[in-house]
Write a structure and sequence with these properties.
single chain, alpha+beta, 23% helix, eight-stranded antiparallel β-barrel, two-stranded antiparallel ribbon, 201 residues, Hypothetical Protein Pfu-838710-001, 10 strands
Length: 201
């Protein structure tokens, strides 16, 4: 093993952040799309969870969220004006959160930097980030489907007592999702990610 200043040097390459293509809609007239997914895909998971969003007006390409007070992640949108969005899960951490992770979040989102000096728990992080963002708490019930390299999600999302419905399709490769969009006749104009939807609702 190699050492630098008496510390072992990690010889493995740094793991690349997960990237995926996504098309999502919140339109109400999606019964036909729902039926196609339920018919063509295989259901692999159903769950209900709490999702907390800390959104920054003017920075809709960055989506920090907490899932079930167990996982905090930051998703970053890498493209614009495309039929599907390309997202990167740039930060993903469980709790208690390390100081190095707090510094990484502060570097990625400078507006949050001063709020992260002494946070380690879900409650302290949530309280700190709420002061610097538009905060949304959602109860999300979702069913996840798989077909080849494409994942589909049918969701019921409750925020402040109001229930909304959403359908999303994702893939780590662009071609499978574009082929499905063409086959199902989906429109790029109907593609709205959850951050844009919440900030304009």
């Amino acid at each position: 093993m190699l050492y630098h200043y008496n510390r072992p040097v990690n010889q493995q390459r740094r793991t690349l952040a997960e990237r995926f293509f996504q098309w999502r809609t919140f339109k109400s007239d999606t019964q036909d799309l729902r039926e196609k997914i339920e018919s063509d895909f295989k259901s692999v998971k159903s769950e209900t969870r709490t999702e907390k969003y800390f959104l920054i007006p003017g920075r809709r390409n960055v989506m920090p969220r907490m899932i079930d007070d167990e996982l905090f992640e930051v998703r970053s949108k890498l493209n614009d004006n495309e039929p599907v969005e390309l997202w990167e899960r740039s930060i993903s951490t469980s709790f208690p959160m390390k100081r190095t992770t707090s510094a990484t979040i502060g570097s990625a989102i400078p507006r949050f930097r001063g709020s992260l000096n002494s946070v380690a728990t879900p409650d302290s992080l949530c309280e700190s980030l709420q002061r610097k963002s538009k905060y949304f708490e959602a109860k999300k019930s979702r069913e996840v489907f798989k077909k080849g390299k494409v994942t589909a999600e049918i969701s019921e999302i409750e925020i402040d007592g109001e229930i909304q419905y959403s359908i999303a399709i994702q893939s780590t490769e662009k071609k499978p999702i574009m082929d499905l969009i063409e086959a199902y006749g989906l429109k790029s104009a109907d593609n709205t990610n959850i951050a844009d939807h919440l900030l304009t609702a």
